[in-house]
Specification:
- Two copies of one chain form a homodimer.
- Chain A starts with 9 loop residues before the first helix and ends in a 16-residue tail after the last helix.
- In chain A, the strands form three sheets. Chain A has a seven-stranded mixed sheet, sandwiched between helices.
- The longest helix of chain A has 22 residues.
- With 410 residues, chain A is α/β, with parallel strands linked by helices.
- Chain A is globular.
- Chain A folds into two domains: 125 residues, Aspartate Aminotransferase, domain 1, CATH 3.90.1150.10; 222 residues, Type I PLP-dependent aspartate aminotransferase-like (Major domain) (Aspartate Aminotransferase, domain 2, 3-Layer(aba) Sandwich), CATH 3.40.640.10.
- In chain A, helix 2 packs antiparallel against helix 11 and helix 12 packs parallel to helix 14.
- In chain A, helix 6 links the parallel strand 3 and strand 4.
């Protein structure tokens, strides 16, 4: 139910692009010539605004403004002003989001702070969860003495119901792109006395998230994927205000203090989510992210989500024509902003695509991931990419030694 | 014993500048016209190299290279390559330092990882310690069940000897600039079975640190002060290799994993200090820092330290002429790269100086801090700044309402 009709020709794709409500958004991106970029689920491209803003933050604010820019350029407020822009994309109160640290660190803080709030001190992760989420639960169990439960795929809610513990769960799975029903899960959390810490990394900027209405209370996510914040851009924390007031961040750094420049010895947290700030925020990265989020200005999340689904439908339809199996759900409503296809030579096929100027990515052991970021990926891009994929698979063009050499980062 | 003679005139200052072994280093900085910058202990200025590098990282590596730059631009190695540059500045093995997260987060990780290694699960901080260090100890005690001991100024080592716990201690105190004797403290740690986590924030880049020879085993520090890495630049972790192998980071994110792209469910840490990495590194900030550290290239740490001491001696000598009391030690060997002067109207005096283009900073309740970063601060700069300070104090030029309005960040 995307409102789109599946296009069966390149011309039909071009027609969809021409009438698309997001068509102007692509102009906001500084995309390199001759590249079809289908890796926005890993690292979003730069916008013209973000590039200009980085230059301003470095040359004007840092080099000329020096220490004064903490006040005069609003550096001190960036974690909140950028948080407010993010809040719109996940449909929560503007002051319930703060930008700080990495997803790993934020998941740690949130899950740790949830320990005294949940009915039992049990940390739950599914074996199919993004590795860092699993590792963070393991590390937190070690330092806190909480019990670690690693359960099979899709058994997280069952374990939550049993234990009333803390489930760390991605809304969109990094490998399959499968989407979790937040409202249903939160209802179970409510019943069980448990708490869910949502990882929004592959969800924000591509789904029509409505966290507050779904009952979600705690979340973190990454900003360098569909939010285009730049390589290693800082992560964000969402915490529902009333719950936040009952929580203490285990990493109580000075930027989470109610009065950081009073230099008092005892810790008094800021109100609400702001207590999850820790050290001094990274201004250059935060500035890039601030400007990058303006790419969403004037766009309806409903349109963003609908186009992502339609693009994903096209990937799957063309893949079936090539005889490739989709790991991702066929139903668009069950899928995030990327589509994973399975092939035992997936790694080499992805390298062959990259050599032709088409950039998806690969996740071990066999998943080729095609990101369909709706702000800049067009239907013709998907069409052309799938033409090349078909050719590579049919001619076994992947069967060359250089496509099998593993890079450090895949 | 700086090898300098105290200058008694502006001409004598100019003569010292003309013959100074660091005189060429100032050219590496993009300093604004008409400003005397004495706040490098809070935020170092930009170098030309850092500004160019930020532009390259954004426009070339991110916008054009996209995801490929993790491999082709060496992003994935930055935490280590930048760490190796830092290692030289603190005299430890090149592979014993990694750049990651903020100081708050890193102190948390190191102190937490030291809990099973120290003789007792006691976290010790002095009441005069930088607030975030105190707060971090408090938060860690909460989540780990370790005992928190907050002791009076200079009583940390005594508590360490008594308990065999973990002392979090700055080498240079943020307020007084007092320097700790690392070798002596580490000898006591060794005897007691305790562990010291050093905070190098106000020390690196201005002292002739020799951590390995002094027996230091764990440290973190900030890179945006005397290292000029940029606003909120990432922090670093030093861990002695053998000790690191016996430690586990409580925040076990995927970048600390031995094989982060294998996506295996169980956590297996990288060897050595690299296990203290957590989330995806912030590439824009790391790139700025990487280039900024090149400002130290070809400079002897001994010369850097000697000039800082001589500049600090000049601040104190001139301050005494004005009748201002120094909070910082008079003995140069006991002092870091900033000098704190006491005045009950310190806040307003600092604002009056800033209005005249001279930028020190202020720490509550009464400390005016003058940073003498030896790479770009000249003897004539200190001389001129002290002339203005004398005038402001003598004419009570601070006594205007606008100099009393408190900014968010001081």
């Amino acid at each position: 139910m995307t409102g789109y009709t599946l296009p069966h020709s390149r011309d039909a794709c071009a027609a969809l692009d021409a009438e698309n409500p997001l068509r102007a958004a692509r102009e906001r991106f500084a995309l390199p010539e001759g590249i079809i970029y289908l890796d926005g689920h890993s690292l979003g491209p730069a916008t013209h605004g973000a590039l200009a803003r980085v230059e301003q933050a470095a040359k004007r604010e840092w080099a000329e403004g020096l220490i004064r820019s903490w006040n005069t350029a609003g550096w001190i407020d960036l974690p909140h002003t950028v948080g407010a822009k993010l809040a719109r994309l996940i449909s929560v109160d503007a002051d319930a989001v703060i930008v700080t640290d990495s997803v790993s660190v934020n998941l740690f803080k949130l899950a740790a702070a949830a320990l005294p709030v949940a009915r039992s001190r049990t940390l739950i992760v599914e074996a199919s969860e993004f590795p860092t989420d699993q590792y963070v639960a393991e590390g937190l169990a070690g330092i806190s003495g909480a019990r670690l439960m690693r359960v099979e795929e899709d058994r997280g809610l069952e374990a939550l119901m049993e234990t009333g513990g803390i489930l760390i769960r991605s809304i969109v799975n990094y490998r399959t792109s499968h989407v979790m029903d937040v409202a249903e899960a939160e209802a179970m959390a409510h019943t069980s006395g448990g708490v869910i810490v949502w990882d929004l990394s592959h969800a924000t900027g591509v789904l029509e998230l409505n966290l507050a209405n779904s009952g979600a209370r705690l979340a973190s996510g990454c900003t360098y994927k569909f939010l285009n914040g730049g390589p290693g851009a800082p992560s964000f924390v969402y915490a529902e205000a009333e719950l936040a007031r009952r929580m203490a961040s285990p990493i109580s750094g000075w930027f989470g203090h109610a009065d950081p420049f009073a230099f008092t010895p005892g810790y008094a947290p800021k109100d609400g989510v702001a207590r999850f700030a820790a050290g001094t925020p990274g201004v250059l990265s935060l500035s890039a992210l601030d400007a990058a989020l303006d790419a969403f200005e004037g766009l309806a999340l409903r349109d963003v989500c609908a186009k992502a689904r339609a693009l994903g439908d096209l990937v799957i339809a063309r893949a079936e024509g090539i005889g490739l199996e989709a790991i991702s759900p066929r139903a668009a409503s069950m899928r995030g902003g990327h589509v994973s296809l399975r092939h035992e030579q997936g790694y080499a096929i992805v390298q062959a695509l990259i050599a032709r100027g088409i950039i998806p990515d690969f996740r071990a052991p066999d998943a080729m991931r095609f990101g369909v970021a709706p702000l800049y990926v067009r239907f013709v891009d998907v069409w052309d990419a799938m033409d090349q994929l078909a050719d590579i698979v049919e001619t076994r063009a992947w069967d060359r030694p250089e496509f099998h050499a593993r890079a450090k980062v895949t």
